[in-house]
Write a structure and sequence with these properties.
Layout: E1 5-10, H1 18-21, E2 28-31, E3 38-43, E4 49-51, E5 57-58, E6 62-64, E7 72-78, H2 83-90, E8 95-96, E9 100-102, E10 106-109, E11 121-124, E12 136-146, E13 151-152, E14 157-163, E15 170-173, E16 177-183, E17 195-204, E18 212-218, H3 223-230, E19 235-236, E20 241-242, E21 246-249, E22 255-261, E23 274-284, E24 289-290, E25 297-305, E26 309-311, E27 318-319, E28 327-330, E29 335-336, E30 339-340, H4 341-345, E31 353-355, E32 361-378, E33 387-393, E34 399-401, E35 405-406, E36 412-431, E37 441-450
Parallel strand pairs: 2-13, 8-12, 15-24, 16-25, 19-23
Antiparallel strand pairs: 1-3, 1-14, 2-6, 3-4, 5-11, 7-10, 7-12, 9-11, 12-14, 15-17, 17-22, 18-21, 18-23, 20-22, 23-25, 26-36, 27-37, 28-32, 29-30, 31-37, 32-36, 32-37, 33-34, 33-35, 33-36
Amino acid sequence: MAGAVIASLAPLSACSDDDATDPYDINYVYLRQPTDTYASVEYKANGDIMSGFTDPYTLVPVRLTKPAPQDLTVEVVVDPSLVDEYNEATGKDYVFINGLDVLNSKLTIKKGEYLSTEPIQITMTDPKAFAVDATDLILPIVIKSNNAGLTTSKSSRIFLTFTSDYVPNLYNLAVSTINKKAITVVDGWQNSLKSINVVDFLTLSYAPYEDVTVNVAIDNSKVADYNTANGTNYVAMTDASLAASTITITPEQTGASLTVNTGDISALANGTTYVIPVNVTSVSGAAVEPTENTKSTFYIVLSGAGYELEQVSNVNGYVYNYTSALTCTVDGQTTTGSYTWADVLKPDEYAWAYWNPTQSMEIDLGETINLNGLCLNCYGAYRCPVTFELETSADGQTWTKWDVLNVTQRSYLYATLSVPSQTRYIKMKGTMPTNSYYQEVDVEWLKLYYE
């Protein structure tokens, strides 16, 4: 089948230039080779064009070498008989393409004008014109006649050549493991994971031309496979269910989403970790195909946690861009030496400062973000704290105090929050090694991450 169609407009000069061999007083009707001689078209399995070929496909106007002696009608047609001539002249093996034709076969050149009032336009008469086995296709365009008996230039031909191949619509399982944590130290924590929405767990290469049906099911027989592969001892959540087992991807979409109802998760507070295997049992419609080596199962892992910080090598999420509303103080002071503390925090500012981490650094972002991690850049391990304390608040009144982090790898202090926190206000403190000469943190910048 055909798919990415490349259309090159190649003229074939069948004879010498008429203007050089005939008297100059002859008024020729002719076609000039289009400036754009290459186009690329992609289409779906049903023949729908994705890009590169706009119907109608516009070429060039019909021309005269002298002004029209009267209102002139010129007929332009597709001529399949020229395919063999083209192949012989070029050494190619093109096949005539059915399903394309001249939309406006009769063009008008007004009296006294040189050009037709509109250009030649090609249209698809068959929506599957390019969906054929042949890969090299051709469409010859010629002048057939005119109503004034003017001479047609013998070299006035346009040959549209196409190469084509099919672009499949591939589906892929876009997630493998989704980790969800509940803060089990607050009242009503069970409601936080009552249901879990998974957006675009399965994705397509492009929007389908018709509905695609995705069937899914929870398959607890795969819990053992997960534990074996990951060295864990997680428990199947036997009362979990899917809000819907059949999901439709419409022509306006490129992904499938689902909702999992978790059931009773009270055992999370006792340290139990659950795993819910979701299996894609079938995908059908719109001639979609699986990507090579795509998996059929993804896992949702549920665990309980306190307000914990974890030191990591990197933080997932978007880097927050500070706004002009940012303020920062240390021990009530907004400046430190030549810089403001707000500028010290910004990665794109050439500013740095020494911070005594026993003094609270207090930050107001000026807006609320869903904070899930941070990176404090210190100048060398000896200038980084050994303990780190964090408090966050959305309103400046109610604060979440995160567990103290014992810092192991220093210099860049990457830390993630056990759960994302709605945050506008931040307080940070810490301690330096008691046996170190350096008792201040060299702050180069502070990056915040959100989701």
